[in-house]
Specification:
mainly beta, Porin, 2 domains, eight-stranded antiparallel β-barrel, four-stranded mixed sheet, 3 helices, 12 strands
């Protein structure tokens, strides 16, 4: 770029936006017109319009006036613009060097004129704001409960049970629609409990529909679904020793978001199973999980 600028300067190419220059006749005895005009042609080259050349539509008119030993310079744009002026002290300049000094001062004042009358560039438009991330339509959660404490009643048998639970849920987030605090979802889970006092062991899969509501920092959840599983009874001479269970169940849970991706969960579940091991059961589930 520096090389290109040097070549343009040597070739006498005018800066972008610079007007042709016409020098009014100089009548000062200390720096005659011919001397100033010749020196100015060296400084601004082809921008200087010769006296015999027709006047262009728009140009900068330079006039030089005498003020004792000084020169007063004035540049007026013929189209539109702000005039610029300057006084050049010449008392300390040798008489034969004064035309050259005046020409250099005119060239410098032309640069001032160009800077003052250059149109102010319009500010660049502000970049558009980054689009807000699209709200998630479905949130997947996974939670585990290493502590499941329950009770069941089957005929004349009643017992306490312990176990664990794993659960996936597919939820519509409440924040998808502003000011909507309710949402729905579905959950798939696996649980096991036992053996207990009568050596009964249950493994079951469950599915439920959920209704959720957010209140401040808590999310309340109501679920209704069904489960299917197998039961093994290890008591002596058990009849039958194993079988299937199936039936409806309901749940009521409280979920507390902890961080952006995790939560704790406390639930109470109860149901009634059919089959050879028909019973009623209830349990307390305490665990936690994460959002995906």
């Amino acid at each position: 770029m520096m090389g290109l600028a040097l070549v343009l300067a040597v070739a006498g190419t005018a800066p972008s936006g610079a007007l042709p220059v016409r020098l009014a006749p100089v009548t000062c005895p200390g720096f005659p017109d011919a001397g100033v005009r010749a020196a100015l042609a060296v400084e601004i080259r082809d921008r200087l319009v010769a006296e015999a050349t027709p006047t262009p539509p728009d140009f900068a008119l330079v006039s030089v006036a005498c003020a004792r030993d000084d020169a007063e310079l004035l540049i007026v744009r013929q189209g539109s613009g702000v005039p610029v002026r300057r006084q050049v002290p010449l008392a300390a300049v040798a008489p034969d060097a004064r035309p050259r000094a005046v020409a250099i001062a005119i060239a410098e004042l032309l640069r001032v004129d160009l800077a003052r009358n250059e149109p102010v560039p319009e500010p660049a438009p502000a970049p558009p704001p980054a689009p807000a991330p699209a709200p998630r339509k479905v949130v997947v959660t996974f939670d585990g409960a290493p502590f499941v404490f329950g009770w069941y009643s089957s005929g004349d048998k009643q017992a306490w049970t312990t176990g664990l639970q794993l659960r996936f849920a597919f939820l519509r987030p409440t924040e998808t629609v502003p000011r909507r605090n309710s949402a729905w979802g579905v959950a798939l889970g696996f649980d096991e409990h036992g053996p207990d006092a009568v050596n009964r062991f249950v493994m079951a899969l469950g599915a439920s529909a959920l209704i959720r509501r957010r209140q401040d920092r808590f999310i309340f959840e109501l679920g209704l679904g069904g489960r299917f599983g197998t039961v093994s009874d290890y008591t002596v001479n058990a009849s039958p020793a194993s079988g299937s269970v199936y039936g409806p169940f309901g749940s009521l849970a409280v979920e507390t978001p902890l961080y952006k991706w995790s939560f704790s969960r406390l639930a109470v579940e109860a149901g009634a199973d059919g089959g050879p091991f028909a019973d009623r059961w209830a349990r307390l589930v305490l665990g936690g999980g994460g959002y995906f």
